[in-house]
Amino acid sequence: MRSLRFGLPLVSLFTGVALLFTAPAAHAADTPLRDLAAAKGKVIGTAVTGSKLTGTYGDLAGSQFSSLTPGNAMKWGTVEPTQGTFNWTEADQIVAFAQAHGQQVRGHTLVWHSQNPGWLTNGTWTSAQLSSLLQNHISTEVGRYKGKIAAWDVVNEPFNEDGSYRSTLWYNGLGSDYIANALTWAHAADPDAKLYINDYNVEGVNAKSTALYNLVKSLKAAGVPIDGVGLQAHLVLGQVPATLQQNIQRFADLGVDVAITELDVRMALPADSTKLAQQKADFKSVVAACVAVSRCVNVTVWGFTDSDSWVDSTFPGYGAATPYDANYAPKPAYYGISEALGGTTTTPPPTGACTAAYSVSSQWNTGFTGQVTISCSGASLSSWKATWTYGAGQQITQAWNAVCTQSGAAVSCTNASYNGTVADGSSVSFGFNAAWSGSNPVPAVTLSPA
Ligand code: XIL
Q1: Is 322 in contact with 60 (CB distance < 8 Å)?
Q2: What is the mean pLDDT of residues 266-282?
């Protein structure tokens, strides 16, 4: 920590953070997920936001994953917000990033009931017009990226939970033939891209996945180009379907590939170490089910960091659904994926941490007021002791919400009778007044149970 100089922001001068029981911040020693996956003949992917592909987000997206799916960039509403006016900026950026990092791209998605442009959904179209709009859209988008897309989610979410066709712009206007036609048009535009139908709640054997199974079977029998099914896998903590592997296998036995296309495991917030351990088990069992079936070719997570997940805004009260936390630290779930891919963890999986942050809240000629905040995430304390050594003769004169003693430069503060417990996800603070002269450098605080 630098010593006191005038003219710099107070916050950078007067704060310090000590870590207790933390996992290492970087896990460079662990084999990247994409290398583990490759050794198993699998592809591991993530949904991404194009504008975030720099810094740590870009480093992790590029180094850990062998496939990228644009989270929104290739949806119709993004690429053609006004009829005839195209915006390929983010999609192009993601494709270029993937090519620079030796990654596949999963195109997502061509025919869906959601995230369509207003001009399309608000228009009044005859069946013939609707059909030609769809054909043009598919030809234009698939054609633009011909040779650059490993697999397209051609049709997204065509079914209701009971296995009937969802009532959509497409089904209502064109009947169920829209599915075969979309696949045929996509194949014409890029014969090398693998073509998928993608849906949610089709991970286990159930009415919806059976409808998908029957559709794929009839498409294959009719000679329609269908290469795979995407199981989105937006899962709830502890609810991986017991029939996941069996379901993957039955599609494989039909002669199509299977991909887990949008894996996340949401939990009621706040996260705690028990939930994070269950989430690790859930990610591990999903990836293991894919590893167990040779035609399961790809597992893609729907955002790799909790700072880039659709869950928090879509399912109020739920979150923490991805393998990395919002600060890009790998969560237990990351190690669940790694272990299912045959990785041996060379650094201990993080079990959470408690940290102590020292700050000076006000300072005058001869004295200052400081405080230390002890916070726990994925860990907890039932008593605590914060110690530090002052480097410039500072002397504590009074403390509150802790019992502090100072001997020479060494300060030791233990919890008061009423605030020794720091629960997972919570914090406790104590304060003090002290004297200083000359300079007032921030000390390094060591935190331990008392
Ligand atoms: C989500 C995106 O992640 C969000 O950013 C957007 O606001 C809504 O769509 N099933 C899908 C994905 O097939 O396209 C959805 O993506 C999540 C559910």
Answers
A1: no
A2: 96
Q: Which of 90, 157, 203, 262 is catalytic?
A: 262
Confidence of residue 349 (pLDDT cuts 50, 70, 90): low
The reply to whether ligand 1 has any atom less than 6 angstroms from the CB of 158 is: no
Q: Ligand 1: which of 115, 168, 310 to mutate, most ligand atoms within 8 Å of CB?
A: 310
Select from 264, 266, 302 the residue to mutate for testing ligand 1; criterion: most ligand atoms less than 8 Å from CB: 302
Q: 9 pLDDT band (50/70/90 cuts)?
A: very low
**Whole-model pTM?**
0.76
The pairing of beta strand 367-377 with beta strand 353-363: antiparallel
Active site residue 141: no
- So where are the chain's domains? 2-22+349-448, 29-340
Of the pLDDT bands very low, low, confident and very high (cuts 50, 70, 90), residue 381 is: confident
What count of other Cβ atoms lies within 10 Å of the Cβ of residue 184?
Answer: 19
pLDDT tens sequence across 397-408: 999 999 999 999
Fold of 2-22+349-448: Immunoglobulin-like (2.60.40)
CATH class of 29-340: alpha beta
**Model pLDDT for residues 33-80, shown as the tens digit of each residue:** 999 999 999 999 999 999 999 999 999 999 999 999 999 999 999 999
262 lines ligand 1 (CB under 6 A): yes
- Reported as a single tens digit per residue, the pLDDT across 298-335 is 999 999 999 999 999 999 999 999 999 999 999 999 99
Query: Is the fold of 2-22+349-448 the same as that of 29-340?
Result: no
